[in-house]
Structures are given as structure tokens and as C-alpha cells.
Amino acid sequence: MKDKQTIELGPRGVAAADVVAVARRAVPVALGTAARQAMQRSAALIDGFVAADTPVYGVTTGFGSLANTAIPAARTAELQVALVRSHAAGMGEPVEPEVVRAMLLLRARSLAMGFSGARPEIVELQLALLNAGITPVVREHGSLGASGDLAPLSHCALALIGEGEVWGPEGALVPTAVALRQAGLAPVTLRAKEGLALINGTDGILGMLCLALHDLGELARLADLTAAMTVEGLLGTDRAFAADLQALRPQVGQAASARNLTRLLAGSAIVASHRVGDSRVQDAYSLRCTPQVHGAALDTMAHARTIAERELQAAIDNPMILPDGRVESCGNFHGAPVGFVCDFLAIAASELTAIAERRTDRMLDVARSHGLPPFLSTDAGVNSGMMIAHYTQVAMALENQRLAVPASTQSMPTSAMQEDHVSNGWAAARKLRRSVANLRRVLAVEMVCAAAAIDLRGPLHPAAGTGAALRVLREHVAGPGPDRWLSPDLCRAELLLAEGSVLAAVEAAVGPLESAS
């Protein structure tokens, strides 16, 4: 996909790559002809229900426990505006703009499928906000993941009627009315069902899941890289990663991770230096079991990706407006499918973090590092080396263990017991984002330490793959030496992993590494 190639919304959903492209790279989006026609047909059905005074949930009735309260036709539009205003009740810190952009796209995607009764004008304004770089301010707390992400999506909907606040194209916080006027856009006047359609979705959870899967796909490959660097730094062996050994346990992810490790360590003079005459018969678990742990994470990611791909093709709303004219209440807004896998991914991220921390710890302990100086300092005592870098790494590993506790098993009833079981999927997705960020930082610490260990094994040379990573790192972070202010080094390493330069250099040297299938 070219960076500025327009994504067209049709009646069949979008791909996960589209979500990332719009959320992070501002790829433009347009409403396709087929989707426009489907929306027009659905909106016409709503007009008919209002004209006939037909009882339809959220169209001619109230919401939640007020579902039995009839709303006269003359007040159905007022009902939708009141819904958006009252439900825009979020609190806490603003949600990251990339998450809000993903939400906007995914809600537009669902409406464009033509099962919600919304007019094309609604989606066109959502897409205009995205294309103009206008991002509604959404507060972190407010969603229970059923009925969808109500409060977050209501803040997005508020912007469509010209109310609330947004970040403008330059990142400044401004009143929505000002931002719309400056962009040459006009707010919409909501009609029956449209306010409800704008807020009754799991788009925030799904958007965060798509972004996390993208990041984890890269971090899983980087975890294999940092593990390979540690194997070299600790004079470990690659024999445990042999294909015939891995085939004895036919787990797909495990085999992929083992192949990555084998490729990354191919031709390593450090590994070859102790193949003969080494008294050790096997490496510690944190080295030897790397494919088993990393592979389990890859398989978890593959499962989560399957769920996300299905959800990206799903129409999420309540009630649903079916082509034959039926209006049916359903539970498609419940976030359990996406909430579960967000929690599962947090478990996987925690384990990738945990085993990376254990590998790092071995390099710093003179009793277990096979000849490396204490804490990788050549002047230990006066100098502390990487001692406190490990403390920082442990702090994040411990936080990821806390974040691995499932949120989707927690529920409290709301709306006077009408909505008596919620998914808590938004909370699961929020903590997943934090867990992914921690994982990247933990791998950055392991890379810095492993690079120092490899330097200290000189004049022996690392493999082509690990050597490529080392060269990129050394352009920004110095090798072993006297103690210095360490935080900037660790932050630079984190940035190198985030921007992709390390992975790009490694894959240029050894070919593409494998990730979740």
C-alpha cells in the first residue's frame, strides 16, 4: 500500500493494515459507491418507521432501561442529540490520537455496511475529519465494552454535531466548531437512529487491538533478535534451535521462532568458538526455551489476528436494520470477542518481557555470565555498569505481570440492570497498549546489554544478523566504558526499535524474519 493511496470504504469492512495506515500515517479514506447505496437504503427504512410511528428501540423509544418509553416522531431527532451529549461523559487523560483515529475509521466502516440506518452524510463527515487531521478529544474512562464503547464513541459523535473539543491539524486543542469552520466543514444535524448508530460499537477496543497486533508482530521478531544477541553474549549454543529437534513438538510459532534464531546466529564466530571443549551440556531455560516461549506468543498473536480479521468484517450496532425491512435487537456490540484476545495478548507480552529480563540478568551476574565482568563494567566497583538498567527493566517486567491479569473477567451491571453483563474490553485494550510499550523498552535494555556483552567477547565477531543490529545501535549508543548518564542511551535504543531501523538492518542482512501466521 502506498502511503497516500486512498482507502475506500465498501459494504464488506476493512483490513487491519488499513486501520494502521489511517491511524498512524494519515492515509486518506473515501466512501465507496456501493456503501453509499447501502446506507441510503437503510436510512430510508428508518424514515418509514418514524413516519409510521413503529416502535423501534432507540428510534421511537428511549435507551437502556428506558426502552419502553415511547418517543413521538417530532422528537426523534432531539432524542439522538440528547443521547450523544449525555453519553459523552468520559473522564481522565485524553486517549492517544492514533486510537481516536482508528475509532473514527472503524465506526465509519461499520456504518458504511448499511445495517445501521445512518445516512451517507454521517460517514462522509467522519472521513472528512480524518482526512483533515481533526481528532476528537476522547477521555480514557467511560467504556465498559457493552453496549460497545459508548462514552468514547460519544465524544467522537459530539464532534460531528459541532460540539466538544478536538485536536486540530497542528495538534492544538480547539473547540470543535472552530476546527470545522477552519477546515471548511459543517456539522451534521442528526436524524432518527443516527446518534445511536454512532456510539453503539466496539471500535475503540478493535482499533487498539489492530494497533497492538501490528506492534507485536515487529516486537516478536525483535525479541528473537535480542535473544540471539544474548546467546552470543553468554557464549550459548544454537544447537537447541535445530529444526529436527523443534519438529518433535509441532507447534507452529515455536518452529518459526527457532528458524529466526538459527538464521540470526548463522555464521557466528562467537557461537562457533566453544562448540568443542565446553564443559556445559546445556544452556539455562531462558536461552534454551526461547523458541517455546516466543513461539507461544506467536501462536497467541495468530489467534488474536483471526478474531480481529473477523471483527473487521462485522457490522456492529443495535438494533440492526436488515435489508428485508426487519429491525432486530442483538448483542453484537458486546466486546467479549475482542476483550478476551486483548487479555490473551497481554499475557503473551508479559511472558516475552519476563524471559527477556531473565536473559538480561544472566549477563550481569558474574557467577553466571561465563567470563563477562560484573554488570558489564570493566571497572566494576567505582562503576556500576548496567546494574540499574536492569532495575528499570525489572520494574517494567513486574508491571507487565500486573497488566497480564485479565480485565475481561470483570463485570458490573449498569443501566438499572438492563445491561447486566459487560465485557470490560476497553480496559483490556488499554492495559494491552501499556504492556506493549513496556515490552519494547524491556527489549531495548536487553539489546543494550547484549551488545555490550558481544563487544566484550572481541575479537570474536557476531553473526551477520546480530552484527547488523550492533552496528545500528553503535551509531547512537556507545559501547562498554566508564559510567555515563544511562537513561538517554536506553531511550535511544527504544526509539531505534520503535522506528524500525534495527529490524530493517537485520532483515537486510539475513532476510525477512518470521512472525505470527
Sheet-strand content, in percent, reads under 5%
Number of strands: 9
Annotation field: number of helices: 20
CATH class category name of the largest domain: Mainly Alpha
Quaternary structure state of the chains depicted: single chain
Uncertain residue ranges: none
Distance between the termini: 20 Å
pLDDT averaged over residues: 95
For the record, the count of structural domains works out to: 2
CATH superfamily of the largest domain: Fumarase/aspartase (Central domain)
Helical proportion, percent range:
55-70%
Which strand order does the major sheet show?
4-6-7
- What is the CATH T-level topology of the largest domain? Fumarase C, Chain A, domain 2
Radius of gyration: 26 Å
Structural class: mainly alpha
Major beta sheet summary:
3 strands, antiparallel
Shape: elongated
The CATH architecture of the largest domain: Up-down Bundle
- H and E string: EHEHHEHHEEHEEHHHHHHHHEEHHHHHH
